[in-house]
Amino acid sequence: MKTRITDMFGIEHPIIQGGMHYVGFAELAAAVSSAGGLGIITGLTQRTPELLAKEIARCRDMTDKPFGVNLTFLPTFATPPYPEYIAAIREGGIKIVETAGRSPEQYMPALKAAGIKVIHKCTSVRHSLKAESIGCDAVSVDGFECGGHPGEDDIPNMILLPRAAEELKIPFVASGGMADARSLVAALAMGAEGMNMGTRFIATKEAPVHDNVKQALVKASELDTRLIMRALRNTERVLRNDNVDRLLEIEREKGRNLKIEDIHDQVAGIYPKVMIEGDMSAGAWSCGMVAGLIRDIPTCKELIDRIMADAEKIIRQRLEGFLAGSPSRKVA
Ligand SMILES: Cc1cc2nc3c(=O)[nH]c(=O)nc-3n(C[C@H](O)[C@H](O)[C@H](O)COP(=O)(O)O)c2cc1C
Predict the structure, then answer these.
(1) 20 to 30 A from 3, CA-CA: which of 75, 96, 242, 295?
(2) Looking at the domain assignment, is residue 328 inside a domain?
(3) Atom 17, ligand 1: residue with shortest CA distance
(4) Per-residue pLDDT reduced to its tens digit, 93-112
(5) Same domain, residue pair 141 and 183
(6) What is the pTM of this model?
(7) How many domains does the chain have?
(8) How far is the CA of 203 from the centre of ligand 1 (A)?
(9) Atom in ligand 1 nearest the alpha carbon of residue 179
């Protein structure tokens, strides 16, 4: 399958693995890229630019396919040294960067001067248009379903993707709620040229996270995520657990007066405890509604091959079948 996204990034399949804190290490990025998708190392999970340089080198040892680095511009407790991270990316020979959070505008000249293609993750049409206007090469359109930060507009992908298709000239991938061939074909039908998956890629053999995390995703249903930090205008979709319930109680008590300090214990420093130690109730960690569609823990190659084979069946048999007048058939 060829799209503007496979052409732009030099990949075989239009499937991207979004940056994920404490998940997007070299092992996962290399596995996704070797399987023909685009793997992405999460820049800020590496605590210093020097560590990111090492992680890029480690990934390069594991795959000869293209892979990217995610740079997230979110409100954090301390501002990271972004120019130094960009230097590590440039010197590591990376040609694809996924940006997310605040606009990457001030860093675009440095990224473009290094010949880097930038795909910015946006949760709205207006931010996607802004990304296009500042020279981003592509957009990852992240719907309300997504794990992580869905923004504050709450527009699901059934609406957001066709709206993005109406407005954008640069290519975009669908992100949020993407799990399988059905997601990919639907996304293509709505104007996207590929898809970006986060949560689904955590439940793979190569994702270097504790097995408890993968089992929790297999067990979870689409009803098990919660939105937190709305009052801070930094909404995040996370998997429900006892500590998230406690956090939501605090949010209810504080109402509009909520401050980040009030929920510090439930959100700060949680990722290593969950992803490395497997303490599933340590606090709030990002997870998409798509957990309801995750039933197994395949390798990245098995997952991507299955998606591409099933997508072909859906298009050639189910959809063409409708046009040919055959009755509805379940093919994937
Ligand atoms: C555990 C986890 C951590 C994430 N961390 C980041 C991050 O650090 N930066 C970022 O841009 N997106 C992050 N995301 C969002 C993903 O890159 C992706 O946009 C999102 O997961 C897509 O929605 P899905 O989970 O429904 O596939 C994270 C998602 C998850 C599930």
Answers:
(1) 295
(2) no
(3) 18
(4) 999 999 999 999 999 999 99
(5) yes
(6) 0.97
(7) 2
(8) 13
(9) 27
